[in-house]
């Protein structure tokens, strides 16, 4: 059964709340439009060069701080930003909304709904006001920085290492999240997919089946995506302000390693767009057959059809057999059509390999 898209989420500012989308226009090598387009960069952290936006892509794990590819291009670790990794509980107190048509960010206090900030991130005066506000909030000077072109402030170097001009998309399987909740006896409340900050949430897929997609291509709506890698989880997922307590009271990476040692602290997968198209809530995501399966199926079909042609060349079926369709179709054509039908039925299960 193919997976079904249940949610599409964009995070315009790295580390802040998601915005729900009904559909998204996917372009090759790009992520969701405006996803992680802005970030809150600590002024005293590793420098950000606006002329080299590819230098700023957050990454998980040790050794991810700098990788060179093509000159001095590099990405920076997420510890250089005010985000869910560096201040999960503080940012969890904020409820944010980004209006894509106007580039306006609205910040409210989650507990009361009090308006705290409303600023256009593409207007200089508003941008300065937003920087001052976030700096005062955290107590450390913050700059609101923007990636240009196809770049974004992603959570993985996967897009960078595969293609320095590319972006990645994050997918989480709701059944996998539910499986972890059940294994860890978390029921009030259970873990929510939003805790893992995905762009795409799927349902109807078996738990952990998304890990078998790595290295394969999937058809998502009218787009084709390549599944690059599993997603390693960091302490940022220990806090869920919207669906959990808002405190770092669950060690999710440890739970993953304890209950699923065969997988380790991984949940979700990263993808990149290979062929553009539109993806909508309710669309299916189907795994395309592996190349070796297609090659095997093609070879088998060719061999069988060649055998049919040899049979037809050595026997006149219209003379040796009565007209099987009353003469409407000659027996040779009927045999060819029947062979193709049987091959289709036999080879169909290979699509799941």
Automatic annotation (TrEMBL):
Superkingdom, natural source: Eukaryota
Pfam families hit by this protein: MOSC
Bilayer-spanning residue ranges: none
Domain MOSC: 122-288
UniProt name for this protein: MOSC domain-containing protein
The organism of origin for this protein: Emiliania huxleyi (strain CCMP1516)
Molecular function as annotated in GO: catalytic activity; molybdenum ion binding; pyridoxal phosphate binding
Start and end residues of each stretch annotated as Disordered: 49-71
């Amino acid at each position: 059964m193919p997976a079904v898209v249940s949610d599409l989420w964009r995070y315009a500012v790295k580390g802040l709340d998601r915005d729900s989308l009904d559909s998204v226009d996917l372009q090759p090598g790009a992520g969701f439009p405006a996803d992680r387009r802005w970030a809150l960069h600590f002024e005293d952290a590793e420098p950000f060069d606006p002329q080299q936006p590819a230098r700023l892509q957050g990454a998980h794990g040790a050794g991810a701080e700098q990788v060179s590819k093509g000159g001095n291009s590099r990405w920076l670790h997420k510890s250089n930003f005010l985000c869910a990794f560096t201040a999960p509980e503080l940012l969890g107190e904020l409820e944010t909304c980004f209006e894509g048509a106007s580039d306006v960010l609205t910040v409210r206090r989650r507990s009361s709904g009090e308006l705290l900030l409303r600023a256009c991130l593409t207007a200089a005066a508003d941008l300065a006001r937003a920087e001052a506000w976030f700096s005062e909030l955290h107590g450390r000077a913050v700059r609101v920085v923007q990636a240009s072109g196809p770049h974004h402030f992603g959570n993985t170097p996967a897009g960078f290492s595969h293609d320095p001009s590319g972006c990645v998309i994050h997918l989480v399987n709701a059944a996998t999240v539910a499986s972890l909740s059940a294994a860890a006896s978390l029921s009030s409340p259970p873990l929510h997919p939003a805790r893992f900050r995905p762009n795409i949430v799927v349902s109807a897929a078996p738990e952990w089946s998304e890990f078998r997609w790595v290295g394969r291509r999937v058809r998502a709506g009218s787009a084709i995506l390549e599944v690059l890698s599993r997603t390693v989880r960091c302490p940022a997922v220990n806090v869920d302000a919207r669906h959990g307590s808002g405190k770092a009271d669950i060690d999710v990476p440890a739970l993953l390693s304890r209950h699923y040692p065969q997988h380790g602290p991984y949940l979700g997968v990263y993808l990149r767009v290979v062929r553009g198209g539109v993806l909508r809530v309710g669309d299916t995501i189907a795994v395309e057959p592996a190349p070796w399966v297609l090659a095997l199926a093609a070879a088998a079909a060719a061999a069988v059809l060649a055998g049919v042609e040899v049979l037809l060349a050595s026997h006149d079926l219209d003379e040796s057999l009565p007209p099987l369709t009353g003469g409407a179709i000659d027996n040779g054509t009927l045999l060819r059509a029947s062979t193709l039908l049987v091959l289709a039925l036999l080879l169909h299960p290979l699509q799941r390999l």
